[in-house]
Amino acid sequence: MSAQKCILIGAGMDCGKRRRGCLMGPDAYRAAGLGETLRALGWQVEDRGNLDGPQWVADAPPGKVHALAECVTWTQALAEAAKTAMGAGFPIFLGGDHALSLGTVAGVAAHAAATGRPLFVLWLDAHPDINTPKTTASGNLHGTPIAYVTGQDGFDGFPAVPAPVPPENVCFIGLRSVDAPERDFITRAGMTAIDMRQIDERGIAAPLAEFLESVSAAGGILHVSLDVDFLEPAIAPAVGTTVPGGATFREAHLVMEMLHDSGLVTSLDLVELNPFLDERGRTASLMVDLVASLFGRRVFDRPTRSHSHT
What we know:
With 310 residues, the chain is an alpha/beta fold. The protein has helices at residues 25-31, 34-40, 68-86, 100-115, 145-149, 180-189, 196-202, 205-217, 249-262, 282-294; strands spanning 5-11, 44-50, 90-95, 119-124, 170-175, 192-195, 221-227, 265-271. The chain contains 10 helices and 8 strands. The protein has an 8-stranded parallel sheet, sandwiched between helices. Strand 7 (221-227), helix 9 (249-262) and strand 8 (265-271) form a beta-alpha-beta unit. It is globular, with a radius of gyration of 18 Å. The termini are far apart.
């Protein structure tokens, strides 16, 4: 990790899709002890609170883009906050739905360009999110960030992306719900896409190690975007887009432990947590535990709970 200071930035963005509840996400992470967990691992923590942004809007009709103006406003605010925070430490963006990455990745990419280092993006998600406002069938903009940050057309009204991420610098892990146009784009653009079948066949460590090696070889920095639906719904129910067959508890922790060991990660999104759908905070707690693994907590250091042997 590049810095010993974490900067928490809450973004209760809840307009990237029609189902409400992600606006409560940032405070759920705080209540689950994110700040205290990071401090216990030796990090300084600066919590910059929650960004102001537009909240609920009435549902757009089916087939129409939902909350376009509101998402543009959030994108501008988040890009600015991300670029500023990157110069001061390791930002963790507490979402909010995945549309927040329209802004966070754009801002991180601008900082990377200013420092002369290539940015790579690891997208831990059931979905690749490379539709555009013109191609989306649902009209939900949380399915568009990768298209935006890689500089694709169709984002009229959005701020120009100052430093688009080359598509070949993007790696998806955990895919299991991909639209046909998205599949075509991934293949055409040379993106690394590791779906759950590959993970079943090869395990999760080998393909991740290959991607991390490419980041290291390029002298790059790595932004990680972690969607709750990357995980198996049985262990992480608090998401409005559950897709069966996600990453297991150990697979997810292994990813985070390997990311820590790489020393390449410089920023993180935590997205799509809908506390309204959670069971006694278990999803928020699991996400905080995963962050702890990313920031250096080892299994041997983990406090044992009710499952400990007596």
